[in-house]
Amino acid sequence: MGKATGKALYADDLTFPGMLYGRTVRSTIPRGRVRAIKRNFDADGFTVVDCRDIPGKNVIALIENDQPCLVEHEVRHFAEPILLLAHADRERLLAADVDIDYEPGTPVLDPATSGVVVCRLIKPMSRISSSACGLPSVASASDHAAP
Q: Going by DSSP bridges, is the β-strand pair 32-39/98-104 parallel, antiparallel, or unpaired?
């Protein structure tokens, strides 16, 4: 009933002494390079984190280590995380203006036109396709059949 009446508390409603609010500044283009980042706000009281602040490798380790935690230079997709901001005052955090200057690139919107994507997908499937990608050949069952 609390949700229906608006009385239920959600994570965004909770506050604690010394708490910081956080915000992620994300790319606004689907592909390109970051030329410059300009912070148009008084940095007093802010914590600003960029790729240089990531301890160890700046990577999200999934299937391959090809996704950075925060953009270093290359933007690979729309809304990719570039900066993290934190401040004790939610209103100041939301008002903090960050301008990112990009060198736009051509987005890869069709996997069939992306050599890297195609080669990753077909690598284990076919000797012909693998060799076309410059990958080692994968023998098929028909290669070993008796004459």
A: antiparallel
Identify which of 71, 94, 66 has the alpha carbon closest to the alpha carbon of residue 81.
71
pLDDT at 66 over 50: yes
Please check whether residues 73 and 124 belong to one and the same domain. no
Q: What is the dihedral of CA 24, 29, 30, 36, to 10 degrees?
A: -80
Domain extent for 90: 8-104
Indicate whether 76 and 12 sit together in one domain. yes
> 């689907």: which residue's tokens?
30
- Does this model's pTM top 0.85? My answer is no
The C-alpha R_g of the chain, in whole angstroms, comes to: 23
